[in-house]
Design a protein that fits this description.
With about 160 residues, this protein is an alpha/beta fold. The protein has helices at about 20-30, 50-55, 100-110, 135-155; strands spanning about 5-10, 40-45, 60-65, 75-80, 85-90, 115-120. Helices cover about 30% and strands about 20% of the residues.
Length: about 160
């Protein structure tokens, strides 16, 4: 069976301002990345439906808005076991599921890939479509951060 590409999964709720940053980054990357070894997916608020995307992967990069109590637009990479150090923003989905819940359930079902989270500090998470001015101003910097992580994680595969 052919090896599956590195999965870059953007998650979040575009109806809650900066919580949609994961989807926004995937949208931008889809216009610039055409490497068959990298698969970009906008997971939106897919909840437990995201589990099947993890099956058979060697590496997964998950992009999400995370409250790290840092300056808005800060991009920080961490491992799943580090997630307890930061707070995931709510509401996440209609099913009140966050991406860490999905990863933890997937651990019990699949042989887990290497997972890296890319947390983006939001400025505003409230009802409304579109990123805050702060994240909009830093979008190029955020995308650059994610591109560097993708380049490093996809080497040698």
């Amino acid at each position: 069976m052919a090896k599956k590409p590195v999965l870059v999964l953007g998650v979040g709720n575009i109806l809650y301002g900066d919580d949609g940053i994961g989807s926004e980054v995937i949208n931008v990357l889809s216009q610039t990345i055409s490497d068959p070894g990298i698969e970009l997916i906008d997971g939106g608020v897919g909840g437990y439906g995201l589990i099947d995307y993890l099956d058979g992967r060697e590496k997964v990069i998950i992009i999400d808005a995370v409250n790290m109590e840092m300056q808005a637009g800060t991009c920080r990479e961490f491992a799943p076991d580090d997630v307890s150090l930061v707070e995931r923003l709510k509401p996440v989905s209609l099913h009140d599921t966050n991406v860490l819940d999905v990863v933890n359930l997937a651990r019990s079902v699949y042989q887990m890939p290497e997972i890296r989270f890319v947390g983006i500090q939001p400025a505003r998470v409230a009802q409304g479509i579109g990123l805050s001015e702060e994240l909009q101003a830093k979008k190029e910097e955020i995308v650059g951060c994610v591109q560097r992580i993708i380049a490093r994680e996809s080497k040698g595969l």
